[in-house]
Design brief:
The protein is an all-alpha fold. Helix content is 68%, strand content 3%. A two-stranded antiparallel ribbon has the order 1-2. Keywords: Membrane, Transmembrane, Transmembrane helix, Transport.
């Protein structure tokens, strides 16, 4: 009577899969990434709590022609202090619309941002970058990314698209701010103190990312 014994057969783990898993776990375990996500989430939540009602932004009864250039400048400053979160959201919508209407530019921006995040900002210091069997140092990676960024922004249509979209958004904001009479708007000391363009979104997120980048240079 013959008996056969079935031997368990298992495929060796793929090196690519192992490298991907290690890379993903390293990225997710980076303290700067966790601090950035937590800070960005908290800053965004605080910013949206300071968003003004949109009906105040488009109240037709509050629009009037400014008496002079000085009056227009004063209106823009006061309206920005009051509607700055709404204005930033409006500018983001304009940028998003322009990028979505140009898929190649959108793909280029996303790829460039992903390269910065994965290869430099959120990469663990003990995780080397190996391309074609060659290990690249942090300074070499930084130089490559800076060169690539300069090329994309200044030598392709991406830079002109971003500049055009930004100018359109800023133009819309300035026109609205100049013609929207801010006399019925109440500005407290907290609004005036936080009038910086990115004050609503700054904090631990930016500090953690900058500290991590400076530590590599």
């Amino acid at each position: 009577m013959s008996s056969s014994q079935n031997l368990p057969i298992s495929d060796p783990p793929s090196s690519a899969t192992g490298n991907t898993t290690t890379w993903s776990s390293t990225i997710s375990a980076t303290p700067a990434l966790r601090a950035f996500i937590a800070g960005l989430t908290e800053s965004t939540r605080r910013a949206f709590t300071r968003r003004r009602p949109w009906y105040e932004l488009i109240d037709r009864t509050a629009f009037s022609k400014p008496e002079s250039l000085t009056d227009a400048t004063s209106r823009i400053r006061k309206n920005y202090n009051y509607f700055r979160v709404n204005y930033i959201a409006l500018l983001s919508v304009v940028l998003a619309f322009c990028l979505l209407s140009h898929p190649f530019s959108l793909l280029t921006i996303v790829s460039l941002a992903g390269a910065w995040l994965l290869l430099y900002i959120f990469r663990a210091p003990d995780q080397p970058v190996v391309i074609g069997g060659r290990t690249f140092s942090d300074r070499e990676i930084l130089g490559i990314l800076v060169t690539l960024t300069v090329f994309v922004v200044f030598l392709t249509s991406v830079g002109s698209l971003l500049m055009s979209a930004t100018l359109i958004g800023v133009g819309i904001i300035c026109v609205h701010g100049a013609f929207r009479d801010p006399e019925d708007l109440f500005l407290d000391d907290q609004d005036v103190a936080g009038a910086g363009l990115l004050s609503s979104f700054s904090g631990a997120a930016t500090s953690a990312a900058v500290a991590d980048v400076m530590a590599r240079v």
